[in-house]
Amino acid sequence: TRTPVNVTVTGAAGQIGYALLFRIASGHLLGADVPVKLRLLEIPQGMKAAEGTAMELDDCAFPLLKGIDIFDDPNQGFDGANVALLVGARPRTKGMERGDLLSANGGIFKPQGAAINAHAADDIKVLVVGNPANTNALIAQAAAPDVPAERFTAMTRLDHNRAISQLAKKTGADVTDIKRLTIWGNHSATQYPDIFHAEIAGKNAAEVVGDEQWLADTFIPTVAKRGAAIIEARGASSAASAANAAIDHVHTWVNGTAAGDWTSMGIPSDGSYGVPEGLISSFPVTCKDGKYEIVQGLDINEFSRKRIDASVAELVEERDAVRELGLI
Ligand code: NAX
Protein backbone atom coordinates (compact mmCIF):
# COMPACT_ATOMS: atom_id res chain seq x y z
CA THR A 1 0.00 0.00 0.00
CA ARG A 2 1.20 3.47 -0.91
CA THR A 3 1.64 6.35 1.48
CA PRO A 4 -1.14 8.89 0.85
CA VAL A 5 -0.17 12.02 -1.06
CA ASN A 6 -0.98 15.23 0.82
CA VAL A 7 -2.93 17.64 -1.36
CA THR A 8 -3.56 21.15 -0.05
CA VAL A 9 -6.40 23.13 -1.64
CA THR A 10 -6.86 26.81 -0.80
CA GLY A 11 -10.22 28.46 -1.31
CA ALA A 12 -11.72 25.08 -0.50
CA ALA A 13 -15.14 26.56 0.28
CA GLY A 14 -15.37 28.40 -3.03
CA GLN A 15 -17.09 27.29 -6.20
CA ILE A 16 -13.96 25.89 -7.88
CA GLY A 17 -13.07 24.17 -4.62
CA TYR A 18 -16.47 22.49 -4.56
CA ALA A 19 -16.00 21.17 -8.09
CA LEU A 20 -12.37 20.17 -7.48
CA LEU A 21 -12.29 18.33 -4.18
CA PHE A 22 -14.55 15.44 -5.17
CA ARG A 23 -12.47 14.72 -8.24
CA ILE A 24 -9.23 14.78 -6.28
CA ALA A 25 -10.75 12.41 -3.74
CA SER A 26 -12.00 10.05 -6.44
CA GLY A 27 -8.54 9.65 -7.94
CA HIS A 28 -8.62 11.92 -10.97
CA LEU A 29 -5.78 14.19 -9.87
CA LEU A 30 -3.04 11.65 -9.34
CA GLY A 31 -4.39 8.32 -10.51
CA ALA A 32 -6.83 5.59 -9.59
CA ASP A 33 -4.27 3.82 -7.41
CA VAL A 34 -2.98 6.81 -5.43
CA PRO A 35 -4.45 7.44 -1.95
CA VAL A 36 -4.76 11.09 -0.94
CA LYS A 37 -5.14 13.16 2.19
CA LEU A 38 -6.83 16.51 1.73
CA ARG A 39 -5.76 19.65 3.57
CA LEU A 40 -8.30 22.40 3.06
CA LEU A 41 -7.15 25.96 3.63
CA GLU A 42 -9.70 28.73 4.03
CA ILE A 43 -10.01 32.09 5.71
CA PRO A 44 -11.94 32.12 9.01
CA GLN A 45 -15.21 33.16 7.29
CA GLY A 46 -14.90 30.15 4.96
CA MET A 47 -14.25 27.53 7.64
CA LYS A 48 -17.85 26.54 8.26
CA ALA A 49 -18.65 26.03 4.58
CA ALA A 50 -15.41 24.06 4.17
CA GLU A 51 -16.55 21.83 7.02
CA GLY A 52 -19.80 21.24 5.15
CA THR A 53 -17.88 20.23 2.04
CA ALA A 54 -15.74 17.90 4.16
CA MET A 55 -18.93 16.28 5.50
CA GLU A 56 -20.04 15.62 1.92
CA LEU A 57 -16.62 14.20 1.05
CA ASP A 58 -17.01 11.84 4.01
CA ASP A 59 -20.42 10.87 2.71
CA CYS A 60 -18.93 9.70 -0.58
CA ALA A 61 -16.83 7.03 1.20
CA PHE A 62 -14.17 7.45 -1.48
CA PRO A 63 -11.83 4.45 -1.28
CA LEU A 64 -8.75 6.60 -1.97
CA LEU A 65 -9.51 9.38 0.52
CA LYS A 66 -7.47 8.79 3.67
CA GLY A 67 -8.17 11.98 5.60
CA ILE A 68 -9.47 15.56 5.49
CA ASP A 69 -8.18 18.40 7.66
CA ILE A 70 -9.34 22.00 7.56
CA PHE A 71 -7.24 25.01 8.49
CA ASP A 72 -7.27 28.77 8.45
CA ASP A 73 -3.53 29.00 9.09
CA PRO A 74 -1.32 28.56 6.01
CA ASN A 75 1.54 27.16 8.11
CA GLN A 76 -0.68 24.25 9.07
CA GLY A 77 -2.48 24.05 5.74
CA PHE A 78 0.75 23.47 3.78
CA ASP A 79 2.40 21.24 6.36
CA GLY A 80 3.72 18.18 4.54
CA ALA A 81 1.97 19.15 1.29
CA ASN A 82 3.13 17.25 -1.80
CA VAL A 83 0.73 19.06 -4.13
CA ALA A 84 -0.74 22.52 -3.49
CA LEU A 85 -3.60 23.99 -5.50
CA LEU A 86 -3.81 27.71 -4.77
CA VAL A 87 -7.35 28.54 -5.76
CA GLY A 88 -8.47 31.14 -3.20
CA ALA A 89 -7.71 34.69 -4.32
CA ARG A 90 -9.02 38.21 -4.03
CA PRO A 91 -11.30 38.91 -7.00
CA ARG A 92 -11.33 42.27 -8.72
CA THR A 93 -14.33 44.22 -7.54
CA LYS A 94 -15.89 47.29 -9.10
CA GLY A 95 -13.67 50.33 -9.09
CA MET A 96 -10.60 48.38 -8.00
CA GLU A 97 -7.36 49.54 -9.62
CA ARG A 98 -4.80 47.01 -10.75
CA GLY A 99 -2.41 48.08 -7.99
CA ASP A 100 -5.08 47.41 -5.36
CA LEU A 101 -5.78 44.01 -6.87
CA LEU A 102 -2.10 43.08 -6.95
CA SER A 103 -1.47 44.18 -3.39
CA ALA A 104 -4.58 42.41 -2.06
CA ASN A 105 -3.38 39.23 -3.70
CA GLY A 106 0.16 39.82 -2.49
CA GLY A 107 -1.31 39.72 0.99
CA ILE A 108 -2.54 36.18 0.23
CA PHE A 109 0.19 34.67 -1.94
CA LYS A 110 3.25 36.01 -0.14
CA PRO A 111 2.41 34.38 3.21
CA GLN A 112 1.27 31.24 1.43
CA GLY A 113 4.61 31.06 -0.42
CA ALA A 114 6.45 31.52 2.88
CA ALA A 115 4.37 28.77 4.49
CA ILE A 116 5.13 26.44 1.56
CA ASN A 117 8.81 27.27 1.92
CA ALA A 118 8.78 26.44 5.62
CA HIS A 119 6.41 23.49 5.82
CA ALA A 120 5.69 21.73 2.51
CA ALA A 121 7.25 18.38 1.57
CA ASP A 122 10.49 18.42 -0.43
CA ASP A 123 8.72 17.25 -3.57
CA ILE A 124 6.04 19.99 -3.42
CA LYS A 125 4.38 20.93 -6.72
CA VAL A 126 2.32 24.13 -6.78
CA LEU A 127 -0.42 25.14 -9.19
CA VAL A 128 -1.82 28.67 -8.89
CA VAL A 129 -5.39 29.02 -10.17
CA GLY A 130 -6.43 32.20 -8.35
CA ASN A 131 -6.16 35.29 -10.52
CA PRO A 132 -4.06 37.07 -11.61
CA ALA A 133 -2.64 33.54 -11.69
CA ASN A 134 0.75 34.10 -13.34
CA THR A 135 1.69 37.00 -11.11
CA ASN A 136 0.28 35.37 -7.97
CA ALA A 137 2.51 32.39 -8.76
CA LEU A 138 5.47 34.74 -9.09
CA ILE A 139 4.71 36.27 -5.68
CA ALA A 140 4.41 32.86 -4.00
CA GLN A 141 7.59 31.67 -5.67
CA ALA A 142 9.57 34.71 -4.57
CA ALA A 143 8.50 34.02 -0.97
CA ALA A 144 9.77 30.43 -1.20
CA PRO A 145 13.49 30.73 -1.97
CA ASP A 146 14.28 27.20 -0.76
CA VAL A 147 11.81 25.54 -3.12
CA PRO A 148 13.10 25.00 -6.68
CA ALA A 149 11.54 27.80 -8.75
CA GLU A 150 10.16 25.42 -11.38
CA ARG A 151 7.77 23.91 -8.84
CA PHE A 152 5.60 27.04 -9.06
CA THR A 153 3.22 26.97 -11.99
CA ALA A 154 0.13 28.90 -13.10
CA MET A 155 -2.93 27.53 -14.82
CA THR A 156 -3.50 28.10 -18.54
CA ARG A 157 -4.90 24.63 -19.10
CA LEU A 158 -8.46 25.91 -19.13
CA ASP A 159 -7.51 28.22 -21.99
CA HIS A 160 -5.77 25.30 -23.68
CA ASN A 161 -8.84 23.08 -23.36
CA ARG A 162 -11.13 25.88 -24.52
CA ALA A 163 -8.98 26.37 -27.62
CA ILE A 164 -9.04 22.66 -28.46
CA SER A 165 -12.80 22.62 -28.17
CA GLN A 166 -13.28 25.70 -30.37
CA LEU A 167 -10.93 24.28 -33.00
CA ALA A 168 -12.74 20.94 -32.96
CA LYS A 169 -16.07 22.70 -33.48
CA LYS A 170 -14.74 24.78 -36.37
CA THR A 171 -13.21 21.86 -38.25
CA GLY A 172 -15.63 19.08 -37.33
CA ALA A 173 -12.76 17.13 -35.80
CA ASP A 174 -12.94 15.18 -32.59
CA VAL A 175 -11.16 16.82 -29.64
CA THR A 176 -8.95 13.75 -29.35
CA ASP A 177 -7.64 14.38 -32.89
CA ILE A 178 -6.19 17.75 -31.87
CA LYS A 179 -2.59 17.81 -30.66
CA ARG A 180 0.18 20.32 -30.01
CA LEU A 181 -1.92 23.35 -29.36
CA THR A 182 -0.18 26.10 -27.39
CA ILE A 183 -1.31 28.90 -25.11
CA TRP A 184 1.43 31.52 -24.83
CA GLY A 185 1.79 34.30 -22.27
CA ASN A 186 -0.53 35.46 -19.54
CA HIS A 187 -3.79 33.90 -18.36
CA SER A 188 -5.68 37.06 -19.30
CA ALA A 189 -7.34 38.58 -22.32
CA THR A 190 -3.89 39.02 -23.92
CA GLN A 191 -3.16 35.29 -23.98
CA TYR A 192 -2.31 33.84 -27.37
CA PRO A 193 -3.77 30.49 -28.45
CA ASP A 194 -1.46 29.29 -31.23
CA ILE A 195 -2.62 26.74 -33.80
CA PHE A 196 0.31 27.12 -36.23
CA HIS A 197 2.04 24.07 -34.74
CA ALA A 198 -1.14 22.26 -33.82
CA GLU A 199 -2.25 19.16 -35.65
CA ILE A 200 -5.69 17.88 -36.50
CA ALA A 201 -5.58 14.15 -37.19
CA GLY A 202 -1.94 14.60 -38.21
CA LYS A 203 -2.48 17.60 -40.52
CA ASN A 204 -1.33 21.12 -39.74
CA ALA A 205 -4.24 22.86 -38.02
CA ALA A 206 -3.63 26.31 -39.53
CA GLU A 207 -3.69 24.74 -43.01
CA VAL A 208 -6.84 22.76 -42.24
CA VAL A 209 -8.52 25.96 -41.05
CA GLY A 210 -7.02 27.98 -43.91
CA ASP A 211 -8.61 31.20 -42.70
CA GLU A 212 -6.39 33.72 -40.94
CA GLN A 213 -9.36 36.08 -40.58
CA TRP A 214 -11.22 33.47 -38.51
CA LEU A 215 -8.13 33.02 -36.38
CA ALA A 216 -7.69 36.72 -35.69
CA ASP A 217 -11.33 37.80 -35.44
CA THR A 218 -13.12 34.77 -34.02
CA PHE A 219 -10.91 32.04 -32.59
CA ILE A 220 -8.46 34.11 -30.54
CA PRO A 221 -11.05 36.47 -29.01
CA THR A 222 -13.49 33.62 -28.33
CA VAL A 223 -10.85 31.71 -26.37
CA ALA A 224 -9.48 34.79 -24.63
CA LYS A 225 -12.90 36.11 -23.63
CA ARG A 226 -14.54 32.80 -22.82
CA GLY A 227 -14.39 33.48 -19.09
CA ALA A 228 -16.48 36.63 -19.52
CA ALA A 229 -18.94 34.80 -21.79
CA ILE A 230 -19.44 32.13 -19.10
CA ILE A 231 -20.11 34.80 -16.48
CA GLU A 232 -22.61 36.45 -18.82
CA ALA A 233 -24.43 33.16 -19.44
CA ARG A 234 -24.21 31.48 -16.07
CA GLY A 235 -24.26 34.48 -13.79
CA ALA A 236 -21.16 33.04 -12.14
CA SER A 237 -17.60 32.45 -13.28
CA SER A 238 -16.27 29.16 -14.68
CA ALA A 239 -16.04 26.62 -11.92
CA ALA A 240 -16.38 23.00 -13.03
CA SER A 241 -14.33 23.63 -16.17
CA ALA A 242 -11.67 25.44 -14.14
CA ALA A 243 -11.56 22.57 -11.65
CA ASN A 244 -11.30 20.13 -14.55
CA ALA A 245 -8.37 22.07 -15.99
CA ALA A 246 -6.60 22.09 -12.62
CA ILE A 247 -7.02 18.31 -12.48
CA ASP A 248 -5.64 18.02 -16.04
CA HIS A 249 -2.67 20.31 -15.28
CA VAL A 250 -1.47 18.35 -12.26
CA HIS A 251 -2.31 14.96 -13.76
CA THR A 252 -0.24 15.74 -16.85
CA TRP A 253 2.63 17.21 -14.81
CA VAL A 254 2.80 14.09 -12.64
CA ASN A 255 1.93 11.42 -15.18
CA GLY A 256 3.34 12.88 -18.40
CA THR A 257 2.20 14.06 -21.82
CA ALA A 258 1.33 11.53 -24.51
CA ALA A 259 3.97 10.74 -27.13
CA GLY A 260 3.80 13.29 -29.94
CA ASP A 261 1.69 15.74 -27.97
CA TRP A 262 2.31 18.60 -25.56
CA THR A 263 0.32 20.81 -23.22
CA SER A 264 0.33 24.43 -22.00
CA MET A 265 1.49 25.46 -18.55
CA GLY A 266 2.38 28.79 -16.97
CA ILE A 267 5.97 28.20 -15.82
CA PRO A 268 9.06 30.26 -14.97
CA SER A 269 10.71 31.26 -18.23
CA ASP A 270 14.29 30.18 -18.90
CA GLY A 271 14.48 32.83 -21.62
CA SER A 272 13.10 30.56 -24.35
CA TYR A 273 11.26 32.24 -27.24
CA GLY A 274 12.40 35.66 -26.08
CA VAL A 275 10.32 35.55 -22.87
CA PRO A 276 12.39 37.28 -20.16
CA GLU A 277 13.88 34.80 -17.72
CA GLY A 278 11.92 34.37 -14.49
CA LEU A 279 8.54 35.58 -15.76
CA ILE A 280 5.80 33.02 -15.23
CA SER A 281 4.47 32.67 -18.73
CA SER A 282 2.57 29.98 -20.59
CA PHE A 283 4.62 27.77 -22.92
CA PRO A 284 4.24 24.54 -24.84
CA VAL A 285 5.63 21.85 -22.55
CA THR A 286 6.12 18.11 -22.46
CA CYS A 287 6.02 16.30 -19.12
CA LYS A 288 7.76 13.14 -18.05
CA ASP A 289 8.55 11.59 -14.66
CA GLY A 290 7.05 14.52 -12.77
CA LYS A 291 9.09 17.13 -14.64
CA TYR A 292 8.27 19.43 -17.53
CA GLU A 293 10.36 20.81 -20.37
CA ILE A 294 9.63 23.64 -22.78
CA VAL A 295 9.22 22.42 -26.36
CA GLN A 296 12.15 23.94 -28.23
CA GLY A 297 12.80 24.90 -31.82
CA LEU A 298 9.33 25.99 -32.92
CA ASP A 299 9.30 28.46 -35.73
CA ILE A 300 7.40 31.56 -34.60
CA ASN A 301 5.80 33.44 -37.49
CA GLU A 302 5.07 37.15 -37.48
CA PHE A 303 1.38 36.69 -36.64
CA SER A 304 2.36 34.75 -33.53
CA ARG A 305 5.36 36.87 -32.60
CA LYS A 306 3.45 40.07 -32.10
CA ARG A 307 0.76 38.37 -30.03
CA ILE A 308 3.25 36.53 -27.80
CA ASP A 309 5.17 39.76 -27.32
CA ALA A 310 2.02 41.67 -26.34
CA SER A 311 1.03 39.14 -23.69
CA VAL A 312 4.58 38.92 -22.35
CA ALA A 313 4.70 42.74 -22.17
CA GLU A 314 1.67 42.59 -19.89
CA LEU A 315 3.45 40.05 -17.68
CA VAL A 316 6.46 42.37 -17.50
CA GLU A 317 4.18 45.20 -16.39
CA GLU A 318 2.57 43.05 -13.71
CA ARG A 319 5.98 41.90 -12.49
CA ASP A 320 7.26 45.46 -12.33
CA ALA A 321 4.14 46.54 -10.44
CA VAL A 322 4.50 43.82 -7.78
CA ARG A 323 8.20 44.56 -7.55
CA GLU A 324 7.38 48.19 -6.87
CA LEU A 325 4.90 47.10 -4.20
CA GLY A 326 7.66 45.09 -2.53
CA LEU A 327 5.84 41.82 -3.11
CA ILE A 328 8.72 40.08 -4.92
P1 NAX B 1 -14.93 31.85 -4.97
O1 NAX B 1 -15.04 33.27 -4.58
O2 NAX B 1 -16.13 31.01 -5.16
O3 NAX B 1 -14.03 31.10 -3.88
C1 NAX B 1 -12.82 31.62 -3.41
C2 NAX B 1 -12.60 31.04 -2.03
O4 NAX B 1 -11.29 31.40 -1.61
C3 NAX B 1 -13.57 31.58 -0.97
O5 NAX B 1 -14.16 30.49 -0.29
C4 NAX B 1 -12.67 32.40 -0.06
O6 NAX B 1 -13.08 32.36 1.30
C5 NAX B 1 -11.33 31.69 -0.25
N1 NAX B 1 -10.16 32.49 0.12
C6 NAX B 1 -9.96 33.81 -0.04
N2 NAX B 1 -8.77 34.17 0.46
C7 NAX B 1 -8.20 33.05 0.93
C8 NAX B 1 -6.96 32.77 1.58
N3 NAX B 1 -6.10 33.76 1.86
N4 NAX B 1 -6.69 31.51 1.93
C9 NAX B 1 -7.57 30.52 1.68
N5 NAX B 1 -8.76 30.71 1.09
C10 NAX B 1 -9.06 31.96 0.71
O7 NAX B 1 -14.01 31.82 -6.27
P2 NAX B 1 -13.85 30.69 -7.38
O8 NAX B 1 -14.92 30.85 -8.39
O9 NAX B 1 -13.69 29.39 -6.71
O10 NAX B 1 -12.50 31.16 -8.09
C11 NAX B 1 -11.26 31.14 -7.43
C12 NAX B 1 -10.19 31.83 -8.24
O11 NAX B 1 -9.96 31.17 -9.46
C13 NAX B 1 -10.51 33.28 -8.61
O12 NAX B 1 -9.36 34.06 -8.36
C14 NAX B 1 -10.76 33.21 -10.10
O13 NAX B 1 -10.47 34.43 -10.74
C15 NAX B 1 -9.80 32.13 -10.50
N6 NAX B 1 -10.02 31.50 -11.81
C16 NAX B 1 -8.92 31.15 -12.53
C17 NAX B 1 -9.00 30.51 -13.75
C18 NAX B 1 -7.78 30.14 -14.52
O14 NAX B 1 -7.95 29.64 -15.63
N7 NAX B 1 -6.55 30.33 -14.06
C19 NAX B 1 -10.32 30.22 -14.34
C20 NAX B 1 -11.44 30.19 -13.36
C21 NAX B 1 -11.36 31.23 -12.28
O15 NAX B 1 -11.89 32.43 -12.78
TrEMBL record:
Entry EC no(s): 1.1.1.37
Start and end residues of each Lactate/malate dehydrogenase C-terminal domain: 156-322
Top-level taxon of origin: Bacteria
Gene3D superfamilies per the UniProt record, alphabetical: Lactate dehydrogenase/glycoside hydrolase, family 4, C-terminal (3.90.110.10), NAD(P)-binding Rossmann-like Domain (3.40.50.720)
UniProt keyword Zinc present: no
Annotated binding of substrate, by residue: 92, 98, 131, 162
InterPro entries xrefs: L-lactate/malate_DH, Lactate/malate_DH_C, Lactate/malate_DH_N, Lactate_DH/Glyco_Ohase_4_C, Malate_DH_AS, Malate_DH_type2, NAD(P)-bd_dom_sf
Active site: 187
Enzyme class, UniProt record, top EC level: oxidoreductase
GO MF term set: L-malate dehydrogenase (NAD+) activity
Keyword Ribonucleoprotein: no
Catalytic activity field: (S)-malate + NAD(+) = oxaloacetate + NADH + H(+)
Entry binding sites for NAD(+): 11-17, 105, 112, 129-131
One of the protein's GO biological processes: tricarboxylic acid cycle
Record's keyword terms, sorted: NAD, Oxidoreductase, Tricarboxylic acid cycle
Domain Lactate/malate dehydrogenase N-terminal: 6-145
Cross-referenced PANTHER family: MALATE DEHYDROGENASE (PTHR23382)
Protein function: Catalyzes the reversible oxidation of malate to oxaloacetate.
Family: Belongs to the LDH/MDH superfamily. MDH type 2 family.
HAMAP family given in the database record: Malate_dehydrog_2
Name of the protein: Malate dehydrogenase
Organism of provenance: Streptomyces katrae
Gene: mdh
